[in-house]
Design brief:
Elements (H helix, E strand, L loop, with lengths): L1 H20 L1 E16 L2 E5 L16 E15 L6 E11 L5 E11 L4 E10 L5 E10 L7 E8 L6 E9 L3
């Protein structure tokens, strides 16, 4: 029993040392949509698509968006998360104005390197939109890093505030 407790204590110390070597960097900034590379497929039930990528179906209708490709500008407090973000947007739109959305992204860092991953979000009936991102870096200054990112578009705003965490793994 004493041997097992010694092994457990040693493992806990090693795990603590490994965790201490990993580093989180907190990043804040903004995200601004700057283009629509592909409108994707929009289907509205009870109405025609509006042509507006931010309100694809008329109020009071439901529908879907598949494969819409958006281009976003990321401006943050850390150069490793600045650049153009190419995101794929899919959504299920509900009659009450809410929607559930998901997709993939590729953030090309201005100074070199690429973040790639997935995201998911929800729009409230007032039009505000919140989302979360998980990504992995490759190349340049983001090689082997991990990204956790949360963004919020207030109702009526085309600029999101973001808060991200970059994880640099321990060595």
């Amino acid at each position: 029993m004493k041997h097992i407790l010694t092994v457990i204590a040693a493992l806990l110390v090693m795990a603590g040392l490994a965790a201490a070597q990993a580093k989180f960097t907190i990043v804040t900034g903004t995200e601004t949509p700057i283009g629509l590379a592909n409108p994707g497929e929009v289907k509205c039930h009870g109405g025609l698509p509006t042509g507006n990528p931010f309100a694809p179906c008329p109020p009071g209708t439901s529908g879907t968006v598949r494969g819409q490709q958006r281009i976003l500008q990321e401006d943050t407090s850390d150069a490793r998360t600045n650049g153009l973000n190419y995101g794929t947007f899919n959504a299920n739109i509900h009659e009450d104005g809410t929607l559930n959305a998901w997709g993939t992204f590729r953030l090309e860092v201005s100074g070199g390197g690429v973040w790639e991953g997935v995201w998911e979000g929800k729009q409230a009936a007032d039009g505000s939109f919140s989302y979360s991102v998980t990504g992995h870096g490759s190349g340049g200054s983001v090689e082997h890093l991990q990204l956790l990112w949360d963004g919020t578009y207030p109702a009526g705003s085309f600029v999101a505030t973001i808060k991200a965490r970059i994880l640099t793994p321990g060595k």
